[in-house]
Amino acid sequence: MKIKDEKYAMTFRIIAYTVTLFATVLCLFPFLLIISASFTPNEVIIREGFHLIPSKFSLEGYKMVFRFPETVLRAYWVTGVTTVVGTALGLFFITMAGYVLQRKDFKYRNYFSFFIYFTTLFGGGLVPWYILMTRYLNLMDTYTVLIFPGLMTPFLIILMKNFIRSAVPEEVFESAKIDGANDFKIYYRIVLQLSMPGIATVGLFLALAYWNDWFLSSLFINDQNMYQLQFYLYNIINSIQFISQMGAGTGISLGTDLPTESTKMAMAIIVTGPILFLYPFVQRYFVKGLTIGAVKG
Amino acid sequence: MTPRRGLLRELSANRIMFLMLLPVVVFFIINAYIPMVGIYYAFTKFDFNRSLFNSEFVGMENFKFLWNSGILAKLTVNTLGYNAAFILFGNVLAIFCAILLSEIRLKWFKKLTQSIMFLPYFISFVILSVVVYNLFNYDSGFLNTMLKAFHMNPVDVYNTPWVWVPLIIIFYLWKNLGYSMVIYLAAITGISEEYYEASKIDGANIFHRVWYITVPMLKNTFVVLLLFALGSIMKGQFDLFYQLIGNNGVLYNVTDILDTYVYRSLKVTFDIGLATSAGLYQSLFGFILVMTVNTIIRKINDEYALF
C-alpha cells in the first residue's frame, strides 16, 4: 500500500514539474524572441528570419531609436506624467470612496454603491462618450483626456472598500470619533496608514493601466507630441507594415531611414523595459490583491 | 418627518463624508451617466454640423440596417462564442495549472514559475501584437523560419482567417492564465489540511485526493468567477482583437466582435449612427443577459447571486 502510494505521488510530481516547466517556457518564449531580435542586425532578420539566439550581435536597432531621441523621450514624458498624475489622483479618490462606502454609519452607502456598480451593467456605449469628450468638453489633444477616463473603475473601488474593511477594525472608527477626530482626519491619519498593502495593490493596477494604455491616445490624440509610448510603438509597427506593403506593391524602393525590424523590436523592449524591470518587485502586491477578497464585492 | 428632511439632515451631519465621495460621483456622472443621453444618436442620421437633438430622427433605421445586413447576427455570434471559449478554456486551464503548481514542493521553483506565468498579464496589447507579428509574419516570422529550415512551405497566417479562431483563444489564455491561476491557488491554499489527512488514512492516493477533494472545493471560486465573467460577456477584450487583427479586413468574418465593429465605425468609416446603434444593442443585450442569469441564480442558490 505504502509503496504504491509513493509511486502515484512520484508520477503526479513528474507530471506537475513537466507541465509547469512547459507552461513557463511558453510564457517566456515570446519575450526571449523579442529581446533576441532587438539585438540582431536588420539584414540578418530579413535574410534568416527571427531566431531565439541572434547569429550576429548588434546594437543597431537601439541606435536607430535613439538617433532622434526627442520623439521617444517625448513619448516617455507624456506616459510618465499621465501615469504618475493619474495614479496619484485616482488613488486619492478611490481610497476616500472606499473608506466612506464601508462606514457602517453612512446611511446612503448602498445607494452610492449601486450608483457605481450600475455603470458596469449598462452604459451608453463608446460613441456617445467619445462625442461628449471631443465635441462638448473639447478634450482633444489634452493631458486631461489621457488621465481622466482611467482614474477609477468600479472594480477598484470595490476592491479598496474590501481592503479597508478587512484592514481597519470597526472599533477604531468609534474610538477615534469619541476622541473628536472628524471623518477626514480618521481617513488620512488612520485608514491610510493601516491599508498600505491595499493602496499599493490598487495603485499598481492603476499605474499598469496608464502605462499600457494605447486606446485613449488612439481615440483622442492627433498631435504627435502628445503620443504615449504604447501608441507611438503601435504607429511605428503599423507604418512599417503599411510602407513595406506599399513598397512591395508599387515596386518603389523607399528610403533607408525607415524603422526596420530590429528597430521595432528595440522599441518594444524600450517601451516594456520599466515593467520588466519593476515586475519582480511589485508582482507580489498583485498576488496579494487578487487573494484578498478581490473576487466578490 | 419627510424623507427629504432626513436627507438634508444627513447631508449636513455627514457633509465631510459626502464631500469625500463627491469626486467619484462626479466621475461616474461625466464618464458614464451623461453619455447615456447620447443613446439618442442611435435613432438619428448623424450630422457633424448639428447638435444632438437637431439631428434628423430616423427611428429604427440604423438597427434595421444592422439587422438586415446580417452584421448584428454575425457580431453577436462571434462575441458570445469567443467569450464562452475564453471563460471555459481559461478556467479549466487555470484550475489544472493551479492544482499542479500547488503540489510542487520546491519553493523557489514554484515561485519562479508562477511569476513567469503571471508576466504576460503585465505587458501591453501593443507588445502582444509585436509578439504575434514576430511569430507569424510571412517573411521573417519564427514559424516560417522554422518551416523553411525543415524545407517546408511557409504559411501565410495573416491571410488565413480560420487559424485566428484558435490563435485568439490561445493568446487570450497566454495573457490571462497567470491572473486566474493566482486566484485558484489562493483558493487551494484555503482548503483545510484535515481533509487531505483524513483521505490519506482512508487510503486515497494523490489522484483521488485531487479529484475528490481539491476539484470540488474549487467549485465556489469557479462559480463566482463565471458570474463575474458573464457580466461582460458582450464586451471584453477589445484590445486583444484590435491589436491582433487591426484593420485586416480579410479576417473580419471570423474575428469581428461588437467592440471592434463599433470602434471602426467611429474611427474609420465615421458612421456615428450605426456605431451608436451597435453599441446600444451591445449594452442592452448584455444588461438583459446579466439580469436574466442573476434572477435564475437567485432562485437556485441565493449565495451566488451577483446582487
UniProtKB/TrEMBL annotation, chain A:
GO terms for cellular component: plasma membrane. It comes from the Bacteria. Residues 76-282 form the ABC transmembrane type-1 domain. It is a multi-pass membrane protein. It is found in: Cell membrane. Keywords: Cell membrane, Membrane, Transmembrane, Transmembrane helix, Transport. Pfam families: BPD_transp_1. The keyword Acetylation does not apply. Coiled coil: none annotated. One of its GO terms (biological process) is transmembrane transport. The chain crosses the membrane at residues 12-35, 75-99, 111-131, 143-160, 186-211, 265-282. Its main location: membrane. PANTHER family: ABC TRANSPORTER PERMEASE PROTEIN MG189-RELATED-RELATED, POLYGALACTURONAN_RHAMNOGALACTURONAN TRANSPORT SYSTEM PERMEASE PROTEIN YTCP. Belongs to the binding-protein-dependent transport system permease family. This is Sugar ABC transporter permease.
TrEMBL record, chain B:
Residues 76-293 form the ABC transmembrane type-1 domain. The chain crosses the membrane at residues 21-43, 84-104, 116-136, 162-189, 210-234, 279-297. GO terms for cellular component: plasma membrane. Its main location: membrane. The keyword Metal-binding does not apply. It is found in: Cell membrane. It is a multi-pass membrane protein. Keywords: Cell membrane, Membrane, Transmembrane, Transmembrane helix, Transport. It holds the Pfam family BPD_transp_1. One of its GO terms (biological process) is transmembrane transport. Belongs to the binding-protein-dependent transport system permease family. PANTHER family: ABC TRANSPORTER PERMEASE PROTEIN, LACTOSE TRANSPORT SYSTEM PERMEASE PROTEIN LACF. This is Sugar ABC transporter permease. It comes from Paenibacillus albidus.
